[in-house]
Design a protein that fits this description.
By secondary structure, this protein is an alpha+beta fold. It has helices at about 1-15, 45-55, 80-85, and strands at about 20-25, 30-40, 65-70, 90-95, 100-110, 115-125, 130-140, 145-150. A hairpin with a 3-residue loop joins strand 5 and strand 6.
């Protein structure tokens, strides 16, 4: 019952702010609410405050005691939502597939079903000695991805 109320309030807030989207909602038995959000243009502190107020101001602490935590999806957290892939086009991803293969490349496309990664590699020349740089790409379906993360480079 309490979770349904929180979920309803959260959905109302997200409808008002269509640039934000939900990554996870956890309501623990002690009414500790933890919400993780992301946004098409990133998440500011003001965005977290907006979601927090939309929920907290509509719940009565005298009826139900609770704690509320609203966080943005961290830069090192795995991608779990299609919109996260779309907002990270142009960044390097490390993707682990169901076949236990890891592919690292530049995310060049993302749609509702697949992503496209591109990278360059050095391979032996077909004729003669030495190596040549080859551009490769892999189209990966979302259901074939077990884990995908943005690669942070300094």
């Amino acid at each position: 019952m309490f979770r349904d109320t929180v979920n309803s309030l959260l959905n109302d807030a997200l409808e008002e702010r269509e640039d934000l989207f939900l990554i996870s909602l956890d309501v623990l038995p002690d009414n500790a609410i933890k919400i993780i959000i992301d946004g098409d243009n990133g998440v500011l502190v003001e965005d977290c405050i907006f979601i927090s107020r939309a929920i907290e101001h509509n719940l009565d602490r005298e009826e139900q005691d609770f704690s509320l935590e609203v966080l943005s999806a961290g830069a090192t957290e795995p991608l779990v939502n299609t919109r996260q892939y779309m907002k990270n086009i142009g960044r390097t991803l490390s993707v682990k597939t169901n076949e236990n293969e890891t592919v690292e490349g530049l995310l060049t496309q993302a749609n509702d079903k697949t992503i496209l990664l591109e990278w360059k590699t050095r391979e032996p020349k077909p004729i003669g000695k030495g190596k040549v740089t080859v551009k490769k790409q892999a189209e990966i379906a979302y259901d074939a991805i077990t884990k995908a993360q943005v690669v942070i480079k300094f």
